[in-house]
Amino acid sequence: MAAKPHPPLMKKHSQTDLVSRLKTRKILGVGGEDDDGEVHRSKISQMLGNEMKFAVREPVGLRIWILFSAVVFTAMALMALVFPNQLYEVVFEEEQTVTSISIRLYGGALLSLSLIMWNGLYTAEKVIIQWTLLSEACYFAIQFLVTSVTLVELGFVSNAAILLLLSRILFLVITLSYYYHLGRRPKKI
Fold it and tell me: Is the pLDDT of residue 55 over 60?
């Protein structure tokens, strides 16, 4: 009994068969718009989500501001840790009579904030950048209040202290504006 040869197999090229491709994509649930108006090219991208949706549109100069803040916070922290008496004399134009441990603790707190700034500089996550800016804004507001109360208690105002207060207000406004602009929702095109 001779085996009858089978005819050659005909493969269906589903890549070229548009109706077949459309049916397959419809069954998988890809190719159409989702609730957000996005069109997914594959089931994997639909399941994982579109990473462009999470990309942060940063305000102009945000990274430069965070770098500037990180450098200034680090420098002030090191000055407060190494030269606490001189830092006090520059701001209040009088010699410090109490121990310098409080200024060194201030330097340690500033160093901790500077580490947050350095971390905020290298991250791409919007929430971390927002918390970095918010912690910086809280610092500027608290320092403004504490310095103002101290100057009122001392009963005199030095030029360096006025410059410090004005710089804290300016830095607070800049930081809050970046925080506000980063928190706004981008316009859909």
Answer: no
Q: What share of the chain is helix, strand, coil (3-state, %, to 5)?
A: 65, 0, 30
**Rounded to an integer, what distance in angstroms lies between the CA atom of residue 31 and that of residue 40?**
6
pTM score over 0.70: no
Joined together, the tokens standing for residue 117 give: 């700034």
For the chain, the structural domain boundaries read 62-183
Angle between helices 159-183 and 126-154 (to 10 degrees): 160
Q: CB under 8 Å to 29, separation ≥6 — which residues?
A: 43, 46
Distances (CA, A) of 83 to 79, 100, 101, 140, 152: 5, 9, 11, 22, 25
Q: Write the CA distances from 3 to 7, 8, 10, integer angstroms.
A: 12, 15, 20
pLDDT in tens, 6-52: 766 666 665 566 667 667 766 766 666 665 555 556 665 555 555 54
Contacts of 22 (CB under 8 A, 6+ apart): 31
